[in-house]
Structure prediction request, 291 residues.
Amino acid sequence: MHKNIIREITPLTVHDCFTIFSREKSEFDFPLHNHEEMELNLIINAPGAKRIVGDHIEEINDLELVFVGSNLEHGWFTHNCKSKEIKEFTIQFHKDLIDDKFLRRNQLSQIRKMFEQSKKGVLFSRETTEEIMPRVMGLVSKRGFASILELLSILHDLSTCKNYKTLSDASFTNENFNYNSRRIEKVFEYMNASFSNPVTLAEVAKIANMPEASFSRFIKKRTGYTFIDSLNEIRLGHVSRMLIDTTHSVAEIAYKCGFNNMANFNRTFKSKKGCTPKEFRENYLGKRVFI
Prediction:
């Protein structure tokens, strides 16, 4: 039996910049899926529903705004939601809506950073969501060039807000990340290739051709994560993928992904995912389609 993610063919045509859907529903009934287009999704009045983005699973509150990057698996599910008056506004746009060369201009640096983060999924704070919500809802009634200007303005304001967080682990997605540093990229290439083995700070600092203390500060400044946090994120991404795609035991997967201490592995996994590896596997596989 082969496990498969629904590949959604969106109604967005090559002749349009974006499309927006406004829906009122009593439940979530679309399976876990992905698509080429980037997506901004506003959910209103669905407390207790479950959100899956990449390998991140979480029960949501009554209001949320999430930005999902190209080809990232995602879906919302009824779960514990009792509301029968759910509102959902979904904006989908081509991943090359803003040309890459244009995106690299200094004035678009924040949008470029947010687009990069969207490869893991971005959850915005409630404060930001409440501020942006009327504009997302108002976009339904805009047409032509004015609608494009408003969408770009919304994306800009979201990119400059504080306290948004990424959801999925980087190594769970097949999308390549741009860290604007060849040193960091070489280190991440090495860690992705060597995650199943012991990886030390001394090794990666040598690859970056930097002293250990300097590299520790450098990776934290460039990625927002420490070396250990970055290595654990890579390993947990591979753990999540193996929990979904294989029938190996949890212990076997942990050891295959470089965790040699089960107590530490279980503690790290639950701290990051909010559930045990067994619960993660059951929650995720229950939302997949089998063909």
